[in-house]
Design brief:
The complex is a heterodimer of chains A (110) and B (119).
Chain A (H helix, E strand, L loop, with lengths): L8 E4 L5 E6 L11 E6 L6 E4 L13 E6 L2 E6 L8 E8 L5 E3 L3 E5 L1
Parallel strand pairs in A: 1-9
Antiparallel strand pairs in A: 2-6, 3-4, 3-7, 5-6, 7-8, 7-9
Chain B lengths: L2 E5 L2 E3 L5 E8 L8 E6 L5 E7 L6 E3 L7 E6 L4 E6 L8 E7 L14 E5 L2
The chains are: A mainly beta (110), B mainly beta (119).
Chain lengths: 110, 119
């Protein structure tokens, strides 16, 4: 149950696009289409942004999109806005019927 | 509206026990799997445990197996996490969240309850 690997930080200017990667193994990210992404602002509970690799819950902006290739999933945020500045976490279902999170990525909007 | 409210956190000595509760309202609790997720101060999220909607199956992260027990009372719309043999590295904010086995922690999360393990 090793944590998924995410970059510690990414940054971008308003209006730009950024991509956050999430690398696992064939026992988690690569083995299932059950990858989720969460946004967390300081002091707040996480908020689901993407589920099942690329699906957006109702109410989440279409500026957020997800994809997967092999053992790596990605979250792309287009048209960056100041309010997107937050921590982002990926998570994946695993072969032992458990879930594992990534270490988190701090997004800074310059 | 959907509400999940955790309670039971506090300061506890190493080796002691604590039981967290998560009171649910505004949705069909008995038809939803439930997760516990924790976050140590200044650290990332860690998935802790999952229980099926009917309580028939439970899964845990390796670090809490044998020490923590997830359970639920569907008649009371309440989820529990019994934490025994607590260690300093169990110090965290504990969140409950809705979601089935292959959903993962999904649409609704509580506000979290802080557990501090310290002598």
């Amino acid at each position: 149950q090793s944590a998924l690997t995410q970059p510690a930080s990414v940054s971008g200017s308003p209006g730009q696009s950024i991509t956050i990667s999430c690398t696992g193994t064939s026992s988690d990210v690569g083995g299932y289409n059950y990858v989720s992404w969460y946004q967390q602002h300081p002091g707040k509970a996480p908020k689901l942004m993407i589920y099942d690799v690329s699906n957006r819950p109702s109410g989440v902006s279409n500026r957020f999109s997800g994809s997967k290739s092999g053992n790596t999933a990605s979250l792309t945020i287009s048209g960056l806005q100041a309010e997107d500045e937050a921590d982002y976490y990926c998570s994946s279902y695993t072969s032992t019927s458990t879930w594992v999170f990534g270490g988190g990525t701090k997004l800074t909007v310059l | 509206q959907v509400q999940l409210m955790e309670s039971g956190g506090g300061v506890v000595q190493p080796g002691r026990s604590l039981r967290l509760s998560c009171a649910a309202s505004g949705f069909s609790f008995s038809r939803n799997g439930m997760h516990w997720v924790r976050q140590a101060p200044g650290k990332g999220l860690e998935w802790v445990a999952l229980i099926w909607s009917d309580g028939s199956n439970k899964y845990y992260v390796d670090s809490v197996k044998g020490r923590f027990t997830i359970s639920r009372d569907n008649s009371k719309n309440t989820l529990y996490l019994q934490m025994n043999s607590l260690r300093a590295d169990d110090t965290a904010v504990y969140y409950c969240a809705t979601g089935g086995e292959r959903d993962g922690p999904r649409d609704y999360w509580g506000q979290g309850t802080l557990v501090t393990v310290s002598s």
